[in-house]
Amino acid sequence: MRTVELTGHDLRIEDVVAVARGEARVRIAPEARQRVREGFALLMELVERGVAVYGITTGFGALDRRRVRPEDTSVLQHNLIVSHAAGTGPSHATEIVRAMMCLRANVLAQGVTGVREEVLDLLVEMLNRGVHPVVPEQGSVGASGDLAPLAHMVLPMIGLGRAEWQGEILDGTEALFRAGLRPCTLAGRDGIALINGTEQASAVACLVIAEAVELARTADVAAAMSAEALLSLASFADPAVHARKPHPGQAASACNLHRILSGSGWAAEAERRKLRDPLSIRCTPQVHGALRDALGWAHRVVEIEINSANDNPLVFLDEGRVNSNSGNFHGQHVGMVLDLLSAALTSLAVISERRVARLVDERLNEGLPAFLVLPPTGEEGMHNGLMLAQYTAAYLVAESRALCTPGAVQSIPTCANSEDHVSMATVSARKTWQILHDATGVLAIELLAAAQALELRGIGRCAAATRAAWAAVRARIPTLDRDRVVAEDMERATSLVRSRAVLRAVEDRIGRLA
After folding, report:
1. Nearest-10 crossing angle of helices 464-474, 486-498
2. Which secondary structure element, helix H or strand E, spans residue 321, and what is its range?
3. Which among 99, 107, 282, 426 would be 20 to 30 A from 385, CA to CA?
4. pLDDT per residue as tens, the chain (514 positions)
5. What are phi and psi of 259, to 5 degrees?
């Protein structure tokens, strides 16, 4: 297993995903450890000199004008965590919790938060030993940090809350004990340092981006299969056309489609029949390309975010001072990125569903049987084929559209109006996570329908790449020659998308797609 070294400055989304999926461990870089020690020492020196520091010598939020005695700091930090663990709703998936832990450790490794080294070490060891706090999805407003979810992440560190260890949900102390760890006592500004950032929304953003990048390539495969089954003109992917509208994502998608359809006998025959295809075919590069370009922007923004000092106050070692009036915990950038990805992923699902609708409609599918089932003689009209699969695709699109309302404009003042603009980035995160899964489901249905359509059309005349995709589908899902439980086929198709089995089959044949 590889190790990701946290410096606070050069963490990549790919690293976060590897840690989230349990494919990598983390460690704190030696130079980062030194910064953490120095940051804590400077913070304590300033406090001893009588410098007012938010969250150490004061209360929190609207209580920041109430002074706290130095000897009460430990109680202050403990109370912060237990009072802010006010989340609700379903618990986050383990991969999201692991991503949150990795991201917060990276922020703390910058040495600007004033956290103690031993507290950072406990967080890292929990991650490496598989102690995963139970973290509710709902409760953060995305400013002053993702306070509620991160407080739930911290509870097991102080012997409270619940955590998953080796598949079992345990009390926080018991989970630590079984992993060979012990709870810590918070001091200084340990509590606020652990929860005052954008790590819930950023964790979801990292995983969405990683999944969506692969989904965009699979979408090109599914679209090419549908295009061939519908006797589409290969010229819709003509590189010369897309050179005249040079969005990078559009060009990449068109190049993929051109390569996948190369050598298709059906596309060659179609060119003798008609001049144009419906927009759900010929505008595929434009729609898929818009998602790709949105992902490019999102990748840049999120990698800046996860290597930023998301906290307040911030300790400046080189200047020997602390700033208690910063707002880097605000999640506006992440929220806006996720809102854009929500719209782009929904558009991907919309155009995919329209291709499915054409495939199952005998009036529009260029001679294929109704709902893509050719029943035995004497059973005409008795089999419904993929009729309801298209219904499900329509539902998933409708749900995604309903979820597309931007979250990052939904600010509601909190904390007695001392926090009078919040990002609601986690609203954006939760709905984008759902939209990603909805889009995956729609593309799975398209793969299912397109494979069936190609078989009915005649797989022998298909392009080499689409034959490889069809074979990957058929390796898990048999031909539909009479009605059966379609949900089981859809579930297998979804696993083919998530495992990238169809994508790999195509790339094994023609090389890696853009």
Report:
1. 120
2. strand 321-323
3. 282
4. 899 999 999 999 999 999 999 999 999 999 999 999 999 999 999 988 988 888 888 878 778 788 888 788 889 899 999 999 999 999 999 999 999 999 999 999 999 999 999 999 999 999 999 999 999 999 999 998 899 999 999 999 999 999 999 999 999 999 999 999 999 999 999 999 999 999 999 999 999 999 999 999 999 999 999 999 999 999 999 999 999 999 999 999 999 999 999 999 887 765 566 888 999 999 999 999 999 999 999 999 999 999 999 999 999 989 999 898 889 999 999 999 999 999 999 999 999 999 999 999 999 999 999 999 988 888 888 899 999 999 999 999 999 999 999 999 998 988 888 888 999 999 999 999 999 999 999 999 999 999 999 999 999 999 999 999 999 999 999 999 999 999 999 999 999 999 999 999 999 999 999 9
5. -70, -40
Nearest to 190, CA basis, from 137, 280, 121, 242: 121
- Total residue length of the chain: 514
State which amino acid sits at residue 53.
Answer: V
- C-alpha–C-alpha distance, residues 453 and 449, integer Å: 6
313: preceding bond cis by omega (within 30 degrees): yes
3-state secondary structure of 241: helix
Active-site position among 6, 15, 54, 473: 54
Catalytic status, residue 54: yes
Please tell me the distance from the alpha carbon of residue 164 to that of residue 177, in angstroms, as a whole number.
Answer: 12
Nearest to 258 by CA among 276, 278, 240, 279: 240
In terms of Cα–Cα distance, which of 214, 225, 135 is closest to 172? 135
